[in-house]
Amino acid sequence: MRKVIISACLLGEFCRYDGKTKTVDKILQKYQDYEIIPFCPEAPLFGTPRDRISVLHVTGENRVIVDKTKQDVTKLLEDEINSFCDKNLHVDEIVLKSKSPSCGNQTTPILDEHMNQISLGDGIATSIFKKRYKNIIIKDENSLF
Ligand code: SF4
């Protein structure tokens, strides 16, 4: 059976930072014949609801920072995401949630140290997935249909 990784919040899980979900029924219908692998790196690490995080471009690289506390959680997320990839080496498709600091694909706001948006880029999971799943074109809930 073909396998697809899908952001868990698109599947109806209440795993967003605000405790909400972003269900897209069309995605479930599209992949009804696939083995669906739900993915959410933030909820297991930080719980739900949780403080908002953002991608900041500081000292020449993107870091993931908790808005309120300014804690740098980049390494925590990298380890969580790489561990997920290690357990799911072979998949056929990937659909991630747009605009998220973890899951966005060229739709994630990239901020400067003053929290001003300077560009749009990849969330931390998407940038790792692009290296780990080189042959797969990552889609989001908008580009999929
Ligand atoms: S966008 Fe990604 S990290 Fe955020 S709640 Fe959805 S699956 Fe989790």
List keywords for this structure.
binds iron/sulfur cluster, 4-stranded parallel beta sheet, 4-stranded mixed beta sheet, 4 helices, 145 residues, globular, alpha/beta
What is the topological layout?
Blueprint: E1 3-7, H1 25-30, E2 35-39, H2 42-46, E3 53-58, E4 61-66, H3 74-87, E5 93-96, E6 108-111, E7 117-121, H4 124-132, E8 139-140
Parallel strand pairs: 1-2, 1-5, 3-6, 5-8
Antiparallel strand pairs: 3-4, 6-7
This protein binds iron/sulfur cluster.
In words, what does this structure look like?
This protein is an alpha/beta fold. It has one domain (3-140). It is 23% helix and 26% strand. It has helices spanning 25-30, 42-46, 74-87, 124-132; strands at residues 3-7, 35-39, 53-58, 61-66, 93-96, 108-111, 117-121, 139-140. The strands form two sheets. It has a four-stranded parallel β-sheet with strand order 2-1-5-8, with no helix packed on it. Strands 4-3-6-7 form a four-stranded mixed β-sheet, with no helix packed on it. Helix 3 packs parallel to helix 4. The two termini are 22 Å apart. The relative contact order is 0.20. The mean pLDDT is 98. Iron/sulfur cluster binds at residues 7-9, 15-16, 39-43, 97, 100, 102-103.
